[in-house]
What does this fold into?
Amino acid sequence: MVDDTYSTPTPAASGFSIADDQRVRLLFCLAVAIFKAATLIYAASGLLQDPDNWWHVRVGLDILSSRTFPTVDTYSYTSAGSPWIAKEWLGQILFALAYSLNGWNGVTLLTIAMITLTVFLLAWYLSASLKPTIAFGLTFVLSFLIDPILTARPLVFTLPIIVIWTAELFRAARREQAPPLWLLPLLCLWANLHATFTFGFIIAAFAGLDLLARTHLTKPGLLGRWIAFGMLCPLVSLLNPYGIKAILATFSVAYGNEAVAFIDEWQPFNAADSYLMEGFLLAALFGLLVSRVQIGWPKTLFLLFNLHLLLTHQRFAYLFVLLVPLVLAAEIGEQFAWVSAQKWTKGHLDRLERFLASHFHSISAAIGILVVSAAAIFSSVSGVEPSPKTSAKGALAFAQQHNLSGNVFNSYNFGGTLIFHGIKTFIDGRTDQLFLNGFMKKTMSTGNSGGKPILEEQLKTYAIGWALLATDDSRIPFFDELTGWRRAYFDKNTVIFVPER
It folds into this structure.
């Protein structure tokens, strides 16, 4: 018998209709999404804390102006001419368009819109299996657990896609149906937005296993359609300006990229630094063990796979947070009546739910006016700027005023702003493809206790004309000791060293 947990419930004799059910569900989903948007607007500058925010906008602007897609590095002098592709080109163009329209306010507002859409979709799919109040509360918690990855980078455009992709594939498997073909254009879009599109292949494979576990090879025709869908996934992802190179680039980080060991977001999960995430993981594990919920071996493997990604690289915590509850919600709603959406539809609306259902149109109109007004006010009034820890605003103004020239030796976190301002970098955030073959390891070793001779070698090898360092850069004492170098500028976040004349 085919399970239909995700389908629209049959109206019960208790008095409220399918329309009332959907209206209440929709308003709860909108409420949690708007609440998340409000918190993001309140702390909008937090979305521009990453040094990569700068160069993503610049790459998008350059693609728009040149109408060509880069194939070699032109932004650094240490890797100039090396193969490099803008595999996230579409997301970069979207950010560039937002920046062209309204500066960093536009970039921030676009980012907030994508996150809000993600939260709404997550609540919507969860509320298909869990009653609206439970879906509201769970989405509220999950939306704050993903805060560490919420920044103005192309990844944010993929969040709504990965929620839809996962929910629809596992729903098709649960219903013992073929995967929806309309998901393939969505995958193509994903492949042009961010390199994580290869996770789409893996998610589809897990959903296929879930179907296999349900049908036990009794429906070979259906299984064949799933296999065909799986074969089409890599084919449609080739529909991008770089073809197979976009797929191959995704493996450069997964296998042997030397930069991984030095970048915070690629470090293993550390409970001491992420106590909220640790609490969520322990609570989830406790709930699964105590409740003895039956989820089947394919979904158990899916849970373990996402847990492995989280523990290996903390940047992938969002996959666990978003996808595991999404995939397990159907079984939880089916096995526990007190959280079940179907059980809820057979009962009576409470006072709040009756109010929401009867005033649906007026509430929806008010929400629409509120959203449009908030966006307009934010765009015209707010003056959001990237973090001063990445902008080096005063230092770059000093460099321009004093005509500092030659190659700059820069701290990693200033690479993005240098690219944005048209200054070729020593190193920057494009380490997934560049600054390899020992360069990253050697550069990072210059900050170690014995790194002074290596630093001197690099200054000579690359004909460094000046240095732009963050105030917490461990190489600053070495520069202070170097013969022929002096501090020319410093502020709260930056220090500039120049050669003695």
Summary: The chain has 21 helices and four strands. Residues 390-499 form one domain.
